[in-house]
Amino acid sequence: MMRSQKHTKKKKWLTVLLIVVGLSVVGGGAYAYSVWHSFDSAVKNIHKPVERKQPVKRAKEVTVKNGDPFSILLLGVDERKNDKGRSDTMIVMTVNPHLKSIKMLSIPRDTRTELIGRGTVDKINHAYAYGDVEMSMDTVEHFLNIPIDYYVKVNMEGFKEVVDAVGGVKVHNDLEFTAGGVTFPVGNLTLDGKKALKFSRMRHDDPEGDFGRQKRQREIIESILDEGASISSLWNYDNIFDALAKNVKTNFTFEEMLGIQSQYKDIRKNIEELKVEGENEWIPNESGKNIYYYSVKNEERQKLSDLLRNHLELGQEMVSAGQ
């Protein structure tokens, strides 16, 4: 796939807030009312507020209806039966309607940092296992020294239902590999829900490791948005909304989603992807067993913090010493 084509697909990311608002293209009459009613019911199930124990790093609350810059933490959680799971995908997005741009930063799951609210240094994706969305937001806030205003949590295990609801996804694979008994050749692929889940989970045979898996997960979700926004998918809206209600949670309200549609509709024209630069490190735990971490120096944290704080139109601040 050409670089320009990939860039165009990445511009659809913000619609994870949700396939939803794009349904304003639907016509009037009983059909439109039925879609709207189903959407309203789904949003009530999707909406889940958070109670932050740590104060958000803001002097005043963000107001979407006024067009304020804001940030989102996207969590891809691998939840399975009887297992709360960990946030294997963590992406921070800062949105600035004045600059009509988005900055998107993927944080590697093994990043070593302090878990805020627990008082220990560990892998950043453990924050979700110990303290759910709240600890994840607090920990990422501390790591980057930026406010985290909103979250969107996606259950990657159950998201295969969403893939099937939109009729499958189209992806471009640049690495041949086998996962879960399925071989994925190089090239353009069409995947059902089960294959999409296997495609998105593989990382051990990828030279890029966790970065490669995050890239595949982003492509799956972007393709879901492409397929979900198509006219043909509107005839299957009940199944789509039902799958979203089961597998997506966010603290965005219905009114804020509508505010994003009216105030931020041009932002997808300019998306910049950022990367956390770090080093592979093995550190012994209390029992002497070496544990793998992705270690990030304070200079790198400061650089990323400055970029994101500027994009949020906040003054620069020094990140805390250590992790």
From TrEMBL:
EC class of the enzyme, as a word: transferase
Topological domain spans for side Cytoplasmic: 1-12
GO cellular component: plasma membrane
Pathway: Cell wall biogenesis
Residues of the Cell envelope-related transcriptional attenuator domain: 86-227
Keyword Protein transport: no
Record EC number: 2.7.8.-
Keywords of this entry: Cell membrane, Cell wall biogenesis/degradation, Membrane, Signal-anchor, Transferase, Transmembrane, Transmembrane helix
Spans within the Extracellular topological domain: 34-323
MF annotations from Gene Ontology: phosphotransferase activity, for other substituted phosphate groups
Protein's membrane topology: Single-pass type II membrane protein
Main subcellular localisation: membrane
Stored InterPro entries: LytR/CpsA/Psr_CW_biosynth (IPR050922), LytR_CpsA_psr (IPR004474), TagU (IPR023734)
Cellular compartment(s): Cell membrane
GO biological process: cell wall assembly
Protein family according to the UniProt entry: Belongs to the LytR/CpsA/Psr (LCP) family.
NCBIfam families, A to Z: lytR_cpsA_psr, PRK09379.1
Role of this protein: May catalyze the final step in cell wall teichoic acid biosynthesis, the transfer of the anionic cell wall polymers (APs) from their lipid-linked precursor to the cell wall peptidoglycan (PG).
Name this protein carries in UniProt: Polyisoprenyl-teichoic acid--peptidoglycan teichoic acid transferase TagU
